[in-house]
Design goal:
14 strands, 171 residues
């Protein structure tokens, strides 16, 4: 039952041990008081909806995470994220993170699935965008990105930048 933590005492901070290799689908779903999460280095894949609707979440260390599932951080309060090891960003992984301004990608190729950053209407900076190889449908819809270097992209989906209207595209 992935709602068990939500119904317990309100959590503001979680420190997951470095030995922890896996958390389950929706593990912290709806923990509305959760502000900070420290992930151990062994946890490199985050499942679907793990932190969905954690509306107070502003701080999580993601630099070592390689794969983020669908809706994992949907509707959180993150403002800046380091995804320097990420290779796959799932469907709507960071959608409706309306305070998210900056995303940093790494040097490896990155697959950005459908709607991964949709409705992130403060998102104006993606460092390392030139490493994105796959841009899913509506991936950056409603962002405010001023430009996009998609020189490594092999696929750009339908309405990938819908209403974003970046002025400077590099293909």
């Amino acid at each position: 039952d992935f709602y068990c933590i939500k119904r317990a005492i309100p959590l503001e901070e979680i420190v997951l041990p470095s030995s922890l290799e896996e958390i389950d689908y929706g593990a912290f779903y709806g923990c509305s008081s959760l502000e900070k999460v420290t992930l151990g280095d062994a946890l490199t894949t985050l499942p679907d909806m793990a932190f969905m609707y954690c509306r107070a979440l502003t701080d999580v260390n993601l630099a070592h995470v390689t794969e983020i599932g669908s809706n994992t951080f949907y509707t959180t309060a993150l403002t800046e994220i380091d995804l320097s090891s990420a290779q796959v960003l799932g469907t709507y992984a960071f959608a409706y993170c309306e305070q998210l301004k900056k995303v940093t990608l790494g040097t490896d190729s990155v697959r950005v699935e459908e709607g991964a950053f949709a409705y992130d209407n403060a998102l104006d900076t993606v460092v390392g965008m030139d490493k994105i190889t796959y841009v899913g449908d509506y991936a950056f819809a409603y962002s405010i990105l001023p430009g996009a270097d998609l020189s490594s992209a092999t696929y750009i989906g339908t309405h990938a930048f819908y209403k974003a209207e970046p002025a400077d595209f590099t293909l």
